[in-house]
Design a protein that fits this description.
Layout: E1 5-8, E2 18-23, E3 28-35, E4 46-51, E5 57-67, E6 74-80, E7 85-91, E8 100-106
Antiparallel strand pairs: 1-2, 1-8, 2-3, 3-4, 4-5, 5-6, 6-7, 7-8
Length: 112
């Protein structure tokens, strides 16, 4: 599998499971994502799970569904807590498969 992507089990990302990997200069992490059933509008849509150094599957972040304030279109964001990693999900380059989502990193905005 290509790094910095998540392959979901269906195009309906909000309810699909997935597997993927995130690679940066400081960490390399294989991830599993599992949907979260919640009526709380602030809850993540998915739990992000990674492996501990001893191989145990542990929750390390989440995926949230957001709405673009300008266009009203929905998009997904991903965080990995221990690495202060933030990213958006988007259609992978040169792909027509919506179940394959690229992990597009972004950093925190600079304080004014």
């Amino acid at each position: 599998m290509t790094t910095n992507c998540i392959k979901f089990t269906s195009d309906d990302i909000e309810t699909a499971k997935g597997i993927g990997s995130i690679s940066t200069l400081t960490f390399d992490l294989d991830i599993t994502v599992e949907p979260v059933a919640s009526s709380n509008p602030m809850a993540p849509t998915h739990r992000v799970l990674g492996r501990s150094p001893r191989g145990k599957l542990v929750e390390c972040g989440g995926i949230w569904k957001k709405q673009n304030k300008d266009t009203g279109s929905d998009y997904f964001t991903l965080t990995v807590r221990d690495h202060a990693f933030n990213a958006n999900l988007g259609k992978a380059a040169s792909q027509d498969d919506m179940s394959l989502q690229a992990i597009i990193p972004w950093g925190p905005k600079e304080a004014a």
